[in-house]
């Protein structure tokens, strides 16, 4: 048997057993039960319109707030890491290492419960959400942004300085715009991760008006003892995330061509 | 050469030393460029030509010595280095145009942000300088869509748009395909003809011979020999100069 034939045989066997497993599962599955528990049209209909106009809207709102905060703080941290002033570099390094190393859920608890207890403050839920997700996002984005800035050829800064620009001016007008162009794909990936991380926010406590997709789905699940809401909110997540990941793929191809 | 009065000197370098770590690259350079003078700096690879040029606008910090630009010491901690740099046009081997900006924006951004010119004035100056390098029709193009020769001419126009007192060139044609070298040298020749003060690091001996008022030969971090092009390039006094020119002739 040649190598090629052997490979074909192995692959054929794998495909056959996979197909067999699917057929077997389909045969032993209780289809009416599955349909009732996962695809109940009445329950799906009862979730409309709140699933979009409250839950999905909140998911997008929380994502946007956390992303904007993370981007702004991430840019500051990236510039601090690249600074010529050593204490700035140390601060940024410690921040980034700490918050990339902690579970997101722990940070959310910290912002939502730890700080309020320690300092005897109550802060608005939207601020808790923004900080709870944004603090961690900033740590990741800082490293992405730093890579983008460092990816801009050295000659760009030299050309800008030769024209009399200050370092800050050169950063703002020349380096950062080019750096961001390089990192639009990884930043979009961060955005997708954030969208999914909003599902952790229920631990901060919610009212009917502040539920995001996952919490909304879970509540319907509990109330109706039925898994249909999971399918519905899952579909909504994918409706949001798949276009974004597709966009990343397109942008990455374009970046690769531009180089 | 050293008898030039300081008033007529645009660039005046004295006793310049520069080290990168243990690498002592410039070893006591005395060098000057008079107002309106065109000086070509030649020498083997690694002799410190680029380092000297970059010390002149403080892209590199000198280790020792003085560098006066129009009489102002750029190494003075109180010197306004950004202002000084804005008066010194710099042209790089690799062009270094800003790829995210159109040709027009490449030419106006520093005029607006550094010179604080109005938009109308900056655009007007940009148009004039683009015409000067023969690229008026490329005003809305992006750098990536230009040939190397065109990019370098835009880079020259960008530097000129700041109305500099002098221009520094670091091997401006070394990254170009041979057929594109001529158009860039043409622009530089015109500039020299208009009386621009120029310091040019180059391997183009024909150009140096034709355009330079003075040629400076550097080797191993010192100025070995300098003088009018006919003297240095045709009848060099020093053995090292002769060897360098001979190697160039052979290739
Ligand atoms: N930023 C730097 N850091 C460390 N060493 C450097 C740096 N820049 C230049 N050097 C060293 O200084 C020496 C002189 O370099 P320089 O670029 O000035 O030479 P050059 O005469 O311009 O050569 P070429 O004709 O190849 O451009 C070389 O040994 C080089 O390795
Ligand atoms: Mg060089």
Explain briefly what this protein structure is:
Chain A has 259 residues and is mostly helical. Chain A has helices spanning 3-28, 31-38, 41-47, 50-81, 86-101, 104-119, 125-150, 154-162, 167-197, 213-224, 228-258.
CATH superfamily of the largest domain in chain A: MetI-like
* Gyration radius from CA atoms of chain B, angstroms: 18 Å
Number of spatially distinct domains of chain A: 2
CATH topology of the largest domain in chain A: MetI-like fold
Q: Residue ranges of chain B: pLDDT <50 for 5 or more in a row?
A: none
Count helical runs of chain A. Answer: 11
The portion of residues forming beta strands of chain B comes to 25-35%
**Biggest β-sheet description of chain A:** none
Look at the helices and sheets of chain A and give the structural class.
mainly alpha
* Quaternary form: heterodimer
Structure, explained:
The complex is a heterodimer of chains A (259) and B (251). Helix content of chain A is 83%, strand content 0%. Chain A has helices at residues 3-28, 31-38, 41-47, 50-81, 86-101, 104-119, 125-150, 154-162, 167-197, 213-224, 228-258. In chain A, helix 4 (50-81) runs antiparallel to helix 5 (86-101), helix 4 runs antiparallel to helix 9 (167-197) and helix 6 (104-119) packs across helix 7 (125-150). The longest helix of chain A is centred in the first third of the chain and has 32 residues, at 50-81. In chain B, helix 3 (103-113) crosses helix 4, helix 4 (119-132) crosses helix 5 (148-160) and helix 5 (148-160) runs parallel beside helix 6. In chain B, 37% of the residues lie in helices and 25% in strands. In chain B, the strands form two sheets. In chain B, strands 6-7-8-3-9-10 form a six-stranded mixed beta sheet, sandwiched between helices. The chains are: A mainly alpha (259), B alpha/beta (251). The A-B interface holds A 153, 155-156, 158-166, 169, 173-174, 177-178, 181, 258 and B 57, 59, 82-83, 85-90, 92, 94, 96-100, 109-110, 113-115, 144, 155, 158-159, 162. The structure holds adenosine-5'-triphosphate and magnesium ion.
């Amino acid at each position: 048997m040649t190598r090629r034939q052997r490979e074909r045989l192995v692959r054929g066997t794998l495909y056959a057993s996979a197909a067999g497993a699917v057929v077997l599962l389909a045969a032993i599955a209780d289809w009416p039960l599955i349909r009732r528990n996962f695809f109940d049209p009445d329950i799906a209909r009862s979730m409309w319109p709140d699933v979009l106009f409250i839950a999905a809207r909140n998911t997008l709102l929380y994502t946007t707030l956390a992303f904007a905060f993370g981007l702004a703080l991430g840019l500051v941290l990236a510039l601090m890491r690249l600074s010529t002033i050593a204490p700035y570099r140390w601060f940024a390094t410690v921040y980034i290492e700490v918050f990339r190393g902690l579970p997101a859920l722990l940070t959310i608890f910290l912002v939502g419960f730890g700080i309020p207890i320690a300092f005897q403050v109550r802060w608005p839920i939207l601020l808790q959400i923004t900080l709870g997700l944004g603090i961690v996002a900033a740590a990741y984005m800082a490293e992405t942004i730093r890579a983008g800035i460092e990816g801009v050829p050295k000659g760009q800064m030299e050309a800008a300085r030769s024209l009399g620009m200050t370092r800050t001016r050169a950063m703002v007008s020349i380096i950062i715009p080019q750096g961001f162009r390089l990192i639009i794909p990884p930043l979009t990936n961060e955005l997708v991760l954030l969208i999914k991380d909003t599902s952790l926010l229920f631990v901060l406590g919610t009212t009917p008006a502040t539920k995001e997709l996952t919490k909304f789905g879970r509540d319907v699940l509990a109330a109706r003892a039925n898994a249909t809401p999971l399918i519905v909110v899952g579909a909504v997540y994918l409706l949001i995330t798949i276009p974004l990941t597709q966009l990343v793929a397109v942008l990455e191809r374009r970046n690769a061509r531009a180089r | 050469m050293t008898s030039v009065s300081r008033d007529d000197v645009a660039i005046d370098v004295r006793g310049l030393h520069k080290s990168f770590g243990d690498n002592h690259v410039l070893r006591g350079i005395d060098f000057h460029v008079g107002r309106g003078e065109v000086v070509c700096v030649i020498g083997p690879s690694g002799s410190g030509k680029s380092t000297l040029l970059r010390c002149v606008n403080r892209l590199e910090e000198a280790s020792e010595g003085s560098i006066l630009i129009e009489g102002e010491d750029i190494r003075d901690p109180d010197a306004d280095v950004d202002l000084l740099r804005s008066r010194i046009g710099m042209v790089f081997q690799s062009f270094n145009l800003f790829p995210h900006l159109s040709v027009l924006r490449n030419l106006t951004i520093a005029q607006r942000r550094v010179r604080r010119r109005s938009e109308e004035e900056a655009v007007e100056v940009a148009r004039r300088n683009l015409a000067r390098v023969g690229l008026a029709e490329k005003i809305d193009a992006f750098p990536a869509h230009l040939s190397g020769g065109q990019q370098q001419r835009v880079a020259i126009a960008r530097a000129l748009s700041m109305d500099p007192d002098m221009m520094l060139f670091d091997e401006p044609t070394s990254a170009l395909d041979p057929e594109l070298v001529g158009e860039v040298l043409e622009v530089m020749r015109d500039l020299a003809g208009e009386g621009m003060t120029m310091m040019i690091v180059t391997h183009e001996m024909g150009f140096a011979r034709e355009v330079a008022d003075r040629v400076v030969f550097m080797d191993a971090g010192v100025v070995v020999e300098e003088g009018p092009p006919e003297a240095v390039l045709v009848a060099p006094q020093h053995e090292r100069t002769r060897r360098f020119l001979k190697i160039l002739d052979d290739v």
